[in-house]
Amino acid sequence: MAINVYAHVPNINDFTAGLKTALKPGEVITLEFPHLLRLIKDTQFDTVYHEHFSCLSLYTVSRIFEQASLWVLAVERLPTHGGSLRVYGCHAGDSRPESPAVSVVLAEERRGGLQDLAVYRAFQPHANRVKNDLLLFLLEQKRAGRTVVAYGAAAKGNTLLNYAGVKPDLLPFVCDAAPSKQGRYLPGSHIPIVHPERIAAERPDYVLILPWNLREEIRAELDYVEAWGGQWVTAVPELNVF
User: What are phi and psi of 14, to 5 degrees?
Assistant: First the structure.
């Protein structure tokens, strides 16, 4: 079992050959990773950063498996990280039947254009729209005298803020519950990372949730924000104020 490991591997073919070596006849390997189809459809460009060496589709994983004499036996869709796949692989030639879900997901990827270069070339304007909408929102609030802070010093949030060029003049601080991050700064933007209690102390008009895939958990944890009329904001896949 390797959960959110496969996309982090520098040499994925060599790693997969190692899976083949470790796998006994009749055993199953299961891998979970963010799904490229969801990344494209939901403009999740903020999940593209140095820790992730690959953005994977089932089609690509199937081809990598084939080169290592492995075979994708089954696949599941998961909601984690904005949409993930969990694949189950075994040795090529295994007698078990392939799950119908494999052909279903492969067909979805074909319809989504994942094997068409035009889909990737069209991705940049979508990322620019997310960036521009966020900047426009932050500038409008600043000019109106309203306060916006952020929650979650996550990797995806750092990618978004650096791409948009957001600095402390538009976003004075980001809160995070991890003590190891508090008292430090987001790389590049130099936005201070502080304890979440700062939100209750300053009562901002808006809280920008940077790890948007955890929005409901964060909203429930900081439910006091809505007590003073504060609102939540997410920027991906599009600007949403709620």
Answer: -65, -40
